[in-house]
Amino acid sequence: MYIKSQPDPIRLEIFKNLYQFIAEQMGIVLQNTATSVNIKERLDFSCAIFDSSGLLVANAPHIPVHLGSMSESVRSLINDKGDTLKPGNVYLSNNPYNGGTHLPDVTAINPVFLDSCENNPCFTPLFFVASRGHQADIGGITPGSMPPNSTTVEEEGILFDNFLLVEEGNFRENSVKQHLSNHTYPARNPDQNLADFKAQIAANERGVQELRKMVSQYELDTVQAYMTFVQANAEESVRRAIAVLKDGSFTYKMDDGSQIQVKVTIYPENRSATIDFTGTSLQLNSNFNAPKAVTQAAVLYVFRTLVDDNIPLNAGCLNPLEIIIPVGCMLNPTYPAAVVAGNVETSQTIVDALYGALGVMAASQGTMNNFTFGNEQYQYYETICGGSGAGIDFDGTDGVHSHMTNSRLTDPEVLETRYPVLLESFSIRPDSGGKGKYSGGNGVVRRIRFLEQMTANILSGHRLIPPFGLNGGEAGKVGRNWIQRQNGIGENLDSTATVEMKTGDVFVIETPGGGGFGQIS
């Protein structure tokens, strides 16, 4: 079939939606078949499809920090196992130095081959599909695998690096179990890990089936050509958005004293931009280092949000951007740096620093308020909403997950049924958003009472540094973490803390508000 060098506009729209539909179908299967609260209730997962070279084509609107970095995982697999990829194989990866975000986010990747090998080598994948799910526990020094005080990646859990999970259709259960247990800090609930891995396998299989169905309906050349067209269309959309931007720079300090420094240079003649992170703090001894793939995901997210067109987030969005991230800084650390907070906390700071440099939006709460608790029997993880920042012509929003996360909170009934805790209250935190011509959104207050003794951890930011306002707008209020013991005594906690909770103790998390934009006239 002859493919034109320019896409048919109607067909382009059809294929854009078809590719996204496949990723959405994968997500539905994953949610329906998973057993963990993390995936089934909180929707802390992402699904996407990739071309033969591992470049992102389309995704469902899941978690931005996953979606912008998954391509690195797929390309790592191609580089590592390219000659040995076979139909029916599924690979697991969570290596933060090969496209992973942090260890709890485990990616299952399927190479996609056609049923018929006519005109195509049988062992050359034509596409890839992948699903990334946040595991409730993947080992490490604290239950929930989000340790506040880890200093190496080994302390954060089990590392999978292009691990063969399914070999030509056979699930390698014993090998996976052995891998989960053969570690200084083994996984606490391997059966739950296995159940979620199987759900990811099912999700990927749906993606494989849908891509094969698409090829049989439209022919391979057309499907592959429109993958390229969809990426080119996204590139053009980002170039149009860049054309109206101005140069800018921003330095944003974090609670631990480290800083993100970014300079954005716009080149109007070819509608491109350079994003330079030179001047950012060196690699940290803490776990607030963000893997390079996470930094790229944050940049990709920001420039995608500046586009008005309805385009899928994909590799084309990155083509107009040159991203400079010095090796050995906290946004491009070297092994074995700890990274668990870099994915969830530092990624948010990168986004706000970029919006600050571009002058388009005040800071949002700038943290995911990562709360984990557990023991040998139970492990739970959640991120908690806060205020979003105000912009040039809009107010911020109260109590919302913003920017690099897009997950839910567990329904109170499910939380209290599955875990020995009581959600005592969950409310808006009044007057925590920064005032301005447009006001920042308010944070929330979440109080959880423990009905059993457990270890609880908080990994958060903006407990010391307030989310900034822009153009005369006020900063949002900082967050606060504290314990109300059963005897009435209160204990203040730092941005990151591990604490032993006794029966009757209440863990209180007050999340930050977003910054305001513009002076009040």
Overview of the structural elements:
The chain is of the alpha+beta class and 521 residues long. The chain has helices at 9-33, 37-40, 64-67, 70-81, 173-181, 190-218, 220-242, 292-305, 340-358, 412-418, and strands at 45-50, 56-59, 90-93, 105-112, 127-134, 163-167, 170-171, 248-253, 259-267, 272-276, 321-324, 370-374, 379-382, 421-428, 444-450, 454-459, 480-484, 490-493, 496-501, 506-510.
N-end to C-end Cα span: 63 Å
Q: What is the rounded Rg?
A: 22 Å
Fraction of residues in helix:
25-40%
Main-sheet strand order equals: 2-1-5-4-3-6-7
SSE diagram, text form:
Layout: H1 9-33, H2 37-40, E1 45-50, E2 56-59, H3 64-67, H4 70-81, E3 90-93, E4 105-112, E5 127-134, E6 163-167, E7 170-171, H5 173-181, H6 190-218, H7 220-242, E8 248-253, E9 259-267, E10 272-276, H8 292-305, E11 321-324, H9 340-358, E12 370-374, E13 379-382, H10 412-418, E14 421-428, E15 444-450, E16 454-459, E17 480-484, E18 490-493, E19 496-501, E20 506-510
Parallel strand pairs: 10-11
Antiparallel strand pairs: 1-2, 1-5, 3-4, 3-6, 4-5, 6-7, 8-9, 9-10, 12-13, 12-16, 14-15, 15-20, 16-19, 17-18, 17-20
